[in-house]
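Tokens as discussed.
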């Protein structure tokens, strides 16, 4: 799902890490970078996927990863950790242990971008279905607007079908995870729950 239209934000307090990750991602994604926590919080919503350093903080001391995890869909964020066992944040899409390896980075970002696309398509599907329902409730189904809505809805369903074929169990769990403090770093499967 890589492409020029997907934006990845790389935010870490180590400029060397930021430069390295940018160089690895730049061929496939539009990459925004920062080493500033406050700037990260002001721009992360424009990204399809966010890679944020575990220790990145704002000037006031807010842990950026925790704040982003509660303000965006956590499935589209990866935390860059010095140790993957250290992840006190709400459910996140992934954790990447530093030093990050190129293959793991590209695989993780691809996964996060696919999850973001899934989220966008589901939201569009809901909007289109509501618009179609409004037309149907008025008995207004024999017109071009209804046909256009139905055509786009069919296209969205087809794209969702194709996208879901690329998902594994972690992707499905992440798609339905919610942001709650104290939840595990990765959504648990039913068999893992007490």
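Sequence:
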């Amino acid at each position: 799902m890589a492409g020029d239209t997907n934006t990845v934000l790389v935010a870490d307090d180590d400029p060397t890490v930021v430069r390295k990750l940018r160089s690895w991602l730049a061929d496939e994604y539009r990459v925004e970078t920062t080493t500033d926590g406050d700037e990260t919080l002001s721009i992360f919503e424009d990204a399809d996927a966010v890679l944020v350093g575990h220790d990145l903080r704002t000037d006031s001391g807010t842990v950026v990863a925790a704040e982003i995890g509660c303000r965006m869909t956590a499935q589209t964020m990866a935390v860059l950790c010095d140790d993957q066992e250290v992840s006190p944040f709400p459910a996140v899409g992934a954790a990447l242990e530093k030093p990050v390896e190129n293959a793991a980075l590209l695989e993780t970002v691809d996964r996060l971008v696919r999850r973001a696309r899934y989220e966008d398509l589901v939201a569009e599907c809901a909007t289109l279905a509501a618009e179609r329902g409004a037309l149907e409730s008025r008995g207004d189904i024999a017109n071009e607007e209804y046909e256009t809505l139905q055509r786009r809805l069919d296209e969205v369903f087809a794209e969702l079908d194709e996208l879901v074929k690329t998902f594994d169990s972690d992707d499905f769990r992440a798609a339905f995870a919610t942001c709650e403090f104290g939840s595990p770093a990765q959504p648990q499967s039913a068999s893992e729950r007490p």
